[in-house]
Predict the structure.
Amino acid sequence: MHELSIAQSLVEELDAITIREGALRVNSFRLDIGAISGVEQHALEMALPFAAEGSNAEGATFDINIVVTRVKCKGCGNSWEPETFIGRCRSCDSNDIAIVAGREMVLVSVELET
Ligand SMILES: [Zn+2]
């Protein structure tokens, strides 16, 4: 299960933050997950409490925010949010398109109990 290993590395990161900050435990945290990051939100929501057992993040609450995919044309700089396929630039018809958002998974904030 892909999401379990993601959850485990997140918990490791949370553990490291707790230790670095000299805190007792993690109360809550927020995650941004890109819509095309390949991470399935519900699977991750299921895996996180399981992965957090016995860690500093055990019992922590969390919010997951899905980041909408955003692309930018390398030719003309036009930027938009594709609904399905990235396709071609609507301004200049270039197919040299960069993904600028939607692939990330970021730990946005962590609330610690000190
Ligand atoms: Zn363009």
In short: Residues 73, 75-76, 78, 89, 91-92, 94 surround zinc ion (CB under 6 Å).
